[in-house]
Structure formats: C-alpha cells, structure tokens
C-alpha cells in the first residue's frame, strides 16, 4: 500500500496545496492577498526602522563592517575598491566580495558616508525579504499560511536586530529569497517574455554571488527547479530543466565577469569575486580552529606563505596549504565537520556580538544574552515548524518524513525537546483518561487541571532551557560548563537541518506543488556543504532564515488537518 495521505479522509475544505496542484500548478493570489503582503512588509519595515532610529549615532562599524564602511566611502569618492595603508601606500583590493560595499558606495555617492543611510538601506532590503516570502507561500498555500510566513520573517529577532550591522548576510538572505520567488513563479511563456524572465533571474543570481560568492552554487539548483516548475512534460520538461539551469548559471557567471576582469588586471592574479577563499579553507582545515573562525596569526602562517605579500597570491598560497593539510590528514579534517556545522546552525548571537563589539556601553553583555536567548528560541521554533510542515504535507513516504520530523525536533530542541515531548504525551494520556470518567466527577476535573498544568510547564521549559544554555555558552555557569551546554541543547542540533533536506527529497514529485520546500532544501544543502568545507559561524546560516520562515508558515495548513479539521 502506498504510504500517502488521502485528502478525502479529511473533513472540510480540500487542502490549498492539493487544490492548486489539481489546477495545474501555482495560481496568482487575489488582490486581497497582495494587500496582506504589503501589510506584513510594512510591519517588517517599521520594526527595522525602529532599530535604525535606536542605533543611529550609537553604533559605529565593527568587525568586517569597518572594512565595508571604509571601502564604500572610497568607492563613493571615485577611488574604487582600494585600501590606503598607514604608510601612505594605496593598493587595489578584493579580499571581501564587492557586492555589498559597492551598493553602499553608490548610496554614499548620493547622500554622503552616513551610517544612518546604510541602516535605512539594510531595513529596506530586509523588508523586501518579507514581501518575497509572503508571495512565495501565497502561490501554493492558503492565505493564513502566507500571512504566518511573512510575519515569521518580519518579526525574526536575528533579522530585525541585524539591521544595525554593516554586514553582508542580511543582503544575501534577501537576494537569494527574491531569486527563489522568481524561480517559484517560473512558467512556460512566449519566446521574448520567457527570455526576459530568465535573464532577470540569472542577473539577480549574479548580483547575489557578488555579495556572497557561495550562492553561485545555488544558481544551477534554482534554475533546474524553475525549469521543473514550468508547464512542460516528458522530454520537453527534461530539456527545460537542463536549459534553464545552464542559462541561469551562465548569466550568473557573466554578471560577475567584469569584476573578475578587473581583478585579473589589478590584482596580479585572476580572482573570480573575492580573495578570501584560501584563507577560509586554511582556517577550516586547521584542527586548532575547532571548526570556527580563528586568526591565522594564532594558528600559524604556513612557511611557504610567509614571504608572499600580494593579496591574491597570498590567498592562493593559503588555498594550496589548506588542500595539502586536507590531503595529509583527511580523517582529522572530516572530524571537524560536525563542529563546523554546529557553529553554523546551532549557535546564534551574530547581531548581539556585533552591537556589543561596536559599543559595549550601549549594548551590554546582559542585553546581548537576552537577545541571544530570544534568537535561539525563535530559530528553534522555526526549525520545529519546518519539520512539522514537511512531515505532514500530502505526498509519498509520509511515515519516513514523520520519523525524520520527530528525530530532527528532538535533536534541535535537546533537553527542552525531550521535556516537551514527555509533557505533550502526558497531557494526551491524562486528557484521554479524564474523558473516560463519568461527567461531573471531581476526579475528571482534577485530571484535566493536571494535564493543563503539565502542558504549560512543558511549553515553558523550552525558552527556560535555551536561556540557561545561552548562559552556559557565555561561560557564566562554571558548575555546568561545556558538558552542561551539550546536555541542555544537544551536540547534534544541526542534524535537524539535514532532516529538513531529507524530508523534502522524500516528497519527490510533490515538490512541484510544495515549492517553498524545494527552494529551502536546495539552499540548506548548499549551506551545509559550503561550511562543511570551510569553517562555521552563526551568521552564515542567516541566508536560510527567510525561506525557513516560508516553509514554517505552511504548518498553519497542515496542523489542523492532522486533527481532522478543515484546512485554514
């Protein structure tokens, strides 16, 4: 017997995803839904502008943001991507990607190098991600799911607080989300119109690559999905998948080639986008870095690279040294992969670190911990909702997807997940026991009261556990230490992201309907692979957050169905 869900067994209205699938794919939402998109986008923009007003004049550039601010100001003055050294020398540079500082430089050329202008740009770009997520979900799911998805992005504490950071991750997250929206909307059309759509899609993927080079790996996947989501069948469909994937990838590369040509001419060696891939590979292959970033000065500069001073040449030397280390100790390098993925997907705190680093008086360590606790609770709930949506969506292998969902949820929530599962199970058992007692009995009332209290405690323990884990992570509770942190949050929470990808793959052909899930699986898979190779950091997972909210919002459709109610 096929392991699928029969929609006829559910009461009420047919699920929106099946309803639209039977109509031949996606449908354009009504005008009322477009109004919803503007409302949630306005909420997201308003919150981000509140952060702009609060941060303006308080938080100077910090970390990589210091470099972006200097380079953007030089670009605005017509000096290009150059760096002025203390001895007066000026050199061409390409260490970090050009996309974000170039955007800031264009803005600064109009209004001057004012940080508040950069913050407003960040807020606007962040709000655009809210709009794109709503539109992605509205094409295949219910109105309530689209609203929920948009709100999950609009209110995300990490994305909102990161508005005040002169960093690339927020812009990269929005760009890749808009690219996913273009892929989801892809249809077969007349020659010129379709060529324009593919051209815009490929060029925007190229811009995303200039902001975050790893996103080039997403281009062929999103292109293939766009071709698959067209209205073709048979051999035409196969041709469409391959052709669209190649076209989007080629256009992405072509968009970057002028910058590559500049690097070939100015850097003494051809550099595709940025000259830091070798640095990242060397750090990621070093066991003393433990899977996270560490200064090469502390790890030790390879002997062969100590007399290499050109930026591009040094990066190539570091890449060769990193590859040599991997070849010499492949097992040790592979043993670092869990630590890299844990640093990327399990940990949070990028905006709190930035604000505290920028101005510890205005954003204290206590405030950093409070923000970090809110971030980890929000993100873990987002992961949990994604697992639920992917476990309960109609389609094949539903039992396997449910098993992956339960496993991923327990790994993502750690001790909090175990307590929550026990609490929910106890609530169900007590409630069912109470329902068998004759009406009016005092025992029944007591059993229901106990089950309600157990449920409240089970839910309350989740944020409490993550708050305590965050405290331990910051080194504040010496009695628990690292072991206590692992017990509280679990050392394998990143496996929940692997479970998301596997659940999506098990949906098979149903991904033609559940398009947000397909886009998320592609992006998460690329992020997992990239940081298994290089090193991990919490801010690198932010690129996935908007699409995770898109899938998480769909849980509003599947949860009522699991209870036999009508779809929202």
Task: Explain this structure.
With about 575 residues, this protein is mainly α. Helix content is about 70%, strand content about 0%. The protein is built from 25 helices and 2 strands. It has helices spanning about 15-20, 30-55, 65-75, 100-110, 115-140, 145-155, 155-160, 170-185, 190-210, 220-230, 235-265, 275-285, 295-300, 310-330, 330-335, 335-345, 350-360, 365-390, 400-435, 440-475, 480-490, 495-505, 515-535, 545-555, 555-560, and strands at about 80-85, 90. A two-stranded antiparallel sheet has the order 1-2. The radius of gyration is 25 Å and the shape is globular. The two termini are about 30 Å apart. The relative contact order is 0.13. The model is unreliable at about 1-25, about 475-480 and about 560-568 (pLDDT under 50).
List keywords for this structure.
single chain, 568 residues, mainly alpha, two-stranded antiparallel sheet, 25 helices, 69% helix, disordered N terminus, disordered C terminus
Quick gist of this model?
With 568 residues, the protein is mainly α. The chain is built from 25 helices and two strands.
> What is the total tally of β strands?
2
- The oligomeric state of the chains shown is single chain
Return residue spans where pLDDT drops below 50 for at least 5 consecutive residues.
1-24, 477-481, 562-568
Instruction: Describe the largest sheet.
Output: 2 strands, antiparallel
- Which bin fits the share of residues in helices? 55-70%
Overall residue-averaged pLDDT value:
84
User: What structural class should be given to the helix and strand makeup?
Assistant: mainly alpha
- CA distance, first residue to last residue: 29 Å
The SSE string, one letter per element, is HHHEEHHHHHHHHHHHHHHHHHHHHHH
Estimated radius of gyration: 25 Å
Question: Which strand order spans the largest sheet, edge to edge or round the barrel?
Answer: 1-2
Share of β-strand residues: under 5%
Shape: globular
Contiguous helical run count: 25
């Amino acid at each position: 017997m096929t392991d699928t869900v029969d929609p006829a067994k559910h009461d009420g209205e047919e699920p929106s995803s099946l309803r639209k699938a039977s109509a031949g794919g996606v449908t354009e939402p009504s005008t009322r839904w477009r109004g919803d998109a503007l409302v949630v986008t306005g909420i997201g923009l308003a919150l981000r502008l509140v952060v702009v007003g609060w941060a303006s004049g308080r938080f100077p550039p910090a970390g990589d943001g210091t470099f972006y601010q200097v380079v953007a100001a030089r670009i605005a003055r017509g000096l290009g991507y150059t760096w002025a050294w203390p001895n007066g020398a000026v050199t061409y540079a390409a260490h970090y990607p050009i996309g974000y500082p170039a955007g800031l430089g264009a803005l600064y050329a109009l209004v001057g190098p004012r940080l508040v202008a950069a913050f407003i740009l960040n807020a606007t770009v962040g709000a655009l991600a809210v709009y794109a997520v709503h539109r992605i979900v509205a094409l295949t799911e219910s109105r309530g799911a689209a609203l929920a998805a948009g709100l999950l992005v609009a209110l995300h504490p990490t994305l909102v607080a990161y508005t005040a950071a002169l960093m690339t991750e927020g812009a990269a997250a929005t760009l890749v989300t808009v690219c996913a929206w273009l892929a989801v909307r892809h249809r077969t059309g007349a020659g010129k119109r379709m060529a324009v759509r593919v051209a815009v899609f490929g060029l925007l993927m190229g811009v995303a690559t200039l902001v975050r080079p790893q996103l080039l790996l997403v281009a062929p996947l999103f292109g293939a999905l766009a071709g698959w989501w067209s209205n073709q069948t048979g051999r035409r469909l196969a041709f469409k998948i391959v052709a669209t994937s190649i076209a989007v990838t080629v256009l992405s590369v072509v968009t970057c080639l002028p910058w590559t040509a500049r690097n070939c001419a100015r850097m003494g060696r051809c550099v595709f986008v940025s000259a830091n891939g070798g640095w990242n590979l060397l750090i990621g292959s070093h066991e003393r870095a433990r899977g996270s970033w560490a200064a090469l000065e502390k790890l030790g500069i390879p002997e062969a690279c100590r007399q290499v001073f050109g930026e591009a040449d040094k990066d190539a030397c570091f890449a060769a040294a990193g590859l040599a280390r991997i070849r010499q100790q492949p097992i040790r390098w592979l043993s670092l992969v869990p630590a890299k993925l844990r640093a990327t997907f399990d940990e949070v705190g990028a905006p709190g670190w930035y604000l505290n680093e920028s101005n510890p008086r205005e954003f204290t360590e206590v405030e950093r911990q409070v923000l970090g606790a809110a971030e980890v609770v929000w993100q873990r709930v987002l992961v949990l909702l994604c697992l639920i949506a992917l476990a309960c969506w109609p389609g094949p292998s539903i039992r396997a997807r449910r098993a992956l969902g339960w496993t991923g949820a327990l790994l993502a929530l750690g001790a909090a997940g175990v307590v929550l599962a026990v609490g929910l199970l106890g609530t169900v058992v007590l409630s069912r026991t109470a329902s068998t007692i004759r009406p009016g009995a005092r025992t029944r009332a007591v059993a229901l009261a106990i089950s309600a209290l157990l449920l409240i405690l089970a839910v309350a323990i989740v944020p409490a556990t993550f708050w305590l884990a965050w405290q331990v992570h910051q080194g504040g509770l010496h009695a628990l230490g690292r072991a206590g942190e692992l017990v509280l949050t679990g050392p394998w929470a990143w496996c929940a992201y692997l479970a998301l990808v596997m659940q999506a793959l098990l949906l098979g052909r149903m991904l033609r309907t559940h398009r947000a899930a397909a886009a998320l699986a592609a992006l998460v898979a690329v992020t997992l692979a990239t940081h298994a190779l290089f090193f991990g950091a919490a801010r690198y997972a932010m690129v996935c957050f908007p699409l995770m909210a898109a899938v998480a919002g769909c849980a509003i459709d599947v949860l009522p169905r699991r209870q036999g109610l009508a779809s929202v």
